[in-house]
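Weekly sync, protein design subgroup
Attendees: M.S., D.O., the rotation student, P.L. (late)

Item 1: inverse folding check
M.S. brought a backbone from last month's batch and wanted to see whether the design step gives back something sensible before we order anything. D.O. pointed out we never logged the input encoding, so this time it goes straight into the notes. Structure tokens as presented (110 positions):
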């Protein structure tokens, strides 16, 4: 799953819309996907912030907290987690900062 920043333009005028998409401060990539044993999340912060990263199952239950409200400076980060203790299925990871929340999904296969 790859999350990138993009700009939406009006197809007729070519003028960018002001919808907040181009103002995102978090981008992330999860790999490999599907996962068999090790989850890796690369993420980028465009500004310094307190950061939390939580893994949830599809019922919304938190199954892991990878980062717990830690102050991070703007830049690139990678976090890894073994997935042996999690059953096969679809999961969501959420990266939260002081101003934004970014959620994406990944699959664990056994």
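Designed sequence read out in the meeting:
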């Amino acid at each position: 799953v790859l999350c990138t920043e993009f700009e939406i333009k009006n197809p007729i005028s070519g003028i960018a819309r002001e919808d907040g998409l181009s103002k995102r401060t978090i981008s992330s990539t999860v790999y490999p996907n599907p996962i068999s044993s090790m989850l890796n999340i690369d993420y980028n912060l465009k500004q310094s912030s307190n950061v939390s990263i939580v893994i949830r199952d599809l019922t919304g239950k938190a199954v892991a907290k990878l980062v717990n409200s830690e102050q991070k400076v703007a830049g690139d980060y990678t976090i890894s987690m073994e997935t042996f203790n999690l059953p096969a299925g679809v999961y969501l990871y959420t990266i939260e900062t002081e101003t934004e929340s970014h959620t994406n999904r990944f699959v664990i296969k056994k």
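Discussion: The two ends are 19 Å apart (CA to CA). The chain has a mean pLDDT of 83.
Action: P.L. to compare against the previous round before Friday.
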